[in-house]
Design goal:
Structural class: mainly alpha
Order of helices and strands: HEHHEEHHHH
Shape: elongated
CATH architecture of the largest domain: Orthogonal Bundle
CATH class of the largest domain: Mainly Alpha
CATH topology of the largest domain: Multidrug-efflux Transporter Regulator, Chain: A, Domain 2
Number of domains: 2
Length: 193
C-alpha cells in the first residue's frame, strides 16, 4: 500500500517507475533494469523513499537515446556508456560561465566529495584494522582447536590402551593358566614319564 502511495505522489510530479518508463519506450522492464545496472552513471534517476527508481523527463530522454543506439547503431552497452559519458574533453562545453555562484557551487561540491573521500579512507583504515584483529582471533582459535585435537587424540590413545589392558586382564581371568601339578618326589622317581 505504501508503494501505491509513493507511485501516486510521484505521478503528480511526472516521474515514471521503471515499468512505466519501459512501457513508454516500448521495452520490457527487465531490459530497462539491465540498462540501469550497466549504465547507472549515465541514466539519471530519482530514488524514492522505499528505494525504487523513478525517471523524470531527462531520464526518459536518455533511455530513448540508449534504445536508439542499441537498435539503430547496434552498439553494446559498453560502447553506449562511452558515447554517453561526458569524459571526452574535446566535446565538452563548460557548463558554467564566469558566474561566480556556479564556480562556488562546484567548489562546494568538490569539497563535499573530498570530505566524503576522506571519511571513506578513514572508514577503510578502521575496517582493515578490524579485519586484521579478526584474522588474529581466527588464527588463535585455529591453534586452540589444533591443541584440543592433539589433547583428544592423546586421551583416545590412553583410553584405547586402558581398554586393551582390560581385555587382556579379562582374558587372563577367564582362561586360567594350566599349572603343572607337582607329584610327590617319590612318585617322580619311579614314574616313567
Amino acid at each position: 500500500m505504501n508503494e501505491k502511495n509513493e507511485l501516486v505522489s510521484t505521478k503528480n510530479n511526472a516521474y515514471l517507475s521503471v515499468k512505466e518508463a519501459a512501457e513508454t519506450i516500448e521495452e520490457s522492464p527487465g531490459v530497462v533494469r539491465n540498462w540501469l545496472r550497466e549504465l547507472k552513471t549515465q541514466i539519471p534517476t530519482i530514488v524514492g523513499k522505499h528505494g525504487y527508481r523513478y525517471f523524470d523527463q531527462s531520464g526518459l530522454e536518455v533511455l530513448k537515446k540508449v534504445q536508439q543506439l542499441r537498435r539503430d547503431e547496434n552498439l553494446s552497452l559498453a560502447e553506449i556508456a562511452d558515447k554517453l559519458s561526458p569524459a571526452k574533453t574535446k566535446d565538452i562545453a563548460l557548463p558554467f560561465s564566469s558566474n561566480s555562484d556556479t564556480a562556488e557551487r562546484i567548489l562546494q561540491d568538490l569539497n563535499t566529495i573530498k570530505e566524503q573521500l576522506e571519511l571513506q579512507v578513514n572508514f577503510n583504515q578502521v575496517l582493515v584494522q578490524q579485519l586484521k584483529k579478526q584474522q588474529e582471533h581466527i588464527d588463535e582459535q585455529q591453534q586452540f582447536i589444533q591443541s584440543q585435537k592433539q589433547h583428544i587424540s592423546a586421551l583416545l590413545d590412553i583410553h584405547k590402551r586402558d581398554k586393551e589392558e582390560e581385555s587382556y586382564v579379562k582374558i587372563k581371568k577367564e582362561k586360567p593358566v594350566e599349572t603343572i601339578s607337582k607329584k610327590p618326589t617319590f612318585f617322580r622317581l619311579f614314574s616313567y614319564r
